[in-house]
Write a structure and sequence with these properties.
Elements: E1 2-3, E2 6-7, E3 10-12, E4 15-17, E5 21-23, H1 32-40, E6 45-47, E7 64-65, E8 73-75, H2 84-94, E9 102-107, H3 112-124, E10 129-133, H4 144-150, H5 152-165, E11 170-175, H6 181-191, E12 195-199, E13 202-205, E14 222-226, H7 231-242, E15 250-252, H8 258-266, E16 271-274, H9 276-281, H10 284-300
Parallel strand pairs: 5-6, 5-16, 6-9, 9-10, 10-11, 11-12, 15-16
Antiparallel strand pairs: 1-2, 3-4, 7-8, 8-14, 13-14
Helix pairs in contact: 3-5, 4-5, 5-6, 8-10
Bound molecules: flavin mononucleotide.
Length: 326
């Protein structure tokens, strides 16, 4: 996007995206028409809720707690979605009307074969990018995340096999909670991932003091925290991943303002997936973030977003922080 004299365009591999503000996978992309609304509001790319082969109800209610102090959100949704078939039918009617934003379809399977089938269906419905979700700790298919993220040979096979079956870029969303994140991202790079989306995660527990019981409906009452306070942890993850691999990185976690976007770019990200700030502030927040970003660019004499990418990395040691550091 050229905004006056400013060039907000970012390149993620061969993909040219009009600006680095993306709708992250989650409840705001549950239908193609809600993705279209975020595209119309100005997002560079819009992601679907993660889709599975069958429709899913997700975990028992309550699935999330919004507006925790300081802007946190705690959720254990468990992947509720209408299933890829119903989504695909709706997307075919809407796809031609999502014009200036790239469409990211997020999918989660239990086996390599299922991932291939989901990715192929996503490509056929008009996706520009497929986002493989191996990051969800709240999903009901327990153990899946462990197998994808702990067995690096299996992970390698997953990525290479899916890539062989599609023509569009393949992004992988993985979870930072594993001490082995940097090994995971090296495997993703070796296997040919087109971008890596490292989700910085902190687990949480909310307690109802009247009953003494956990509030969330998921087992043990646990969920994951998202939202603005996560930003600093996510910045560290992004800087670590960008110093480990050359594969493009798309940040996610705690981005809520135009200044935050610039910080993520300077840490090396080429785009930022955002959802909690949009759930809390509403869709108008897309425009607010774009104008905050362009105001800062004008004020500082920065003409091109691309020039900001990785600007802070030269001030950090060449190697990431040691693996024992939280
Ligand atoms: C309510 C909710 C639902 C989410 N659902 C998904 C999902 O289906 N797939 C996925 O990859 N990430 C999902 N996420 C994670 C977000 O895509 C995002 O990476 C994370 O919330 C961090 O960004 P944020 O701080 O801007 O929310 C979800 C997050 C929230 C809060």
């Amino acid at each position: 996007m050229k905004n006056g004299a400013l060039d907000l365009t970012v390149r993620i591999g061969d993909l040219v995206v009009r600006n680095p503000i993306f709708l992250a996978p989650g409840g705001l992309g549950r239908t193609p028409s809600s993705m279209k609304r975020f595209a119309d509001a100005g997002c560079g790319a819009v992601a679907s809720k993660t889709l599975t082969s069958e429709p899913r109800k997700g975990n028992p209610n309550p699935k999330r707690i919004r507006r925790l102090p300081s802007g946190w959100m705690l959720n254990a949704e468990g992947g509720p979605n209408i299933g890829i078939e119903a989504f695909s039918a709706a997307m075919r009617k809407t796809r031609s009307r999502i014009r200036d934003s790239h469409v990211i379809i997020s999918v989660a399977g239990r086996t390599i074969e299922e991932f291939v089938s989901l990715a192929t269906q996503a490509e056929n419905m008009g996706a520009d990018v497929i986002d493989l979700d191996i990051s969800c700790p709240n999903a009901t298919n327990k153990g899946a995340i462990d197998s994808w993220q702990k067995d690096l040979d299996l992970l390698y096979d997953l990525i290479t096999t899916v890539k062989k079956n599609i023509r569009i870029p393949l992004w992988i969303k993985c979870l930072s909670a594993y001490g082995t994140l940097l090994e995971i991202v090296r495997t993703l790079e070796d296997a040919g991932a087109d971008a890596i989306v490292p989700l910085t995660s902190i687990g949480g527990l909310a307690i109802d003091i009247e009953t003494g019981k956990p509030v969330l409906g998921f087992e043990h009452g646990v969920g994951i925290l998202t939202g603005p306070p996560l930003k600093w942890a996510a910045l560290k993850t992004v800087a670590d991943v960008c110093r480990t691999v050359k594969t493009p990185v798309v940040a996610t976690g705690g981005c809520a303002s135009g200044q935050d976007v610039i910080e993520f770019l300077m840490a090396g990200a080429r785009g930022v997936q955002i959802i909690t700030a949009f759930m809390q502030e509403g869709i108008k927040h897309v425009e607010t973030m774009i104008s905050q970003m362009t105001d800062l660019m004008e004020k500082n004499g920065w003409n091109r977003v691309e020039d900001l990418i990785g600007r802070s990395l030269k001030y950090l040691p060449e190697k990431p922080f040691p693996a024992w550091y939280p």
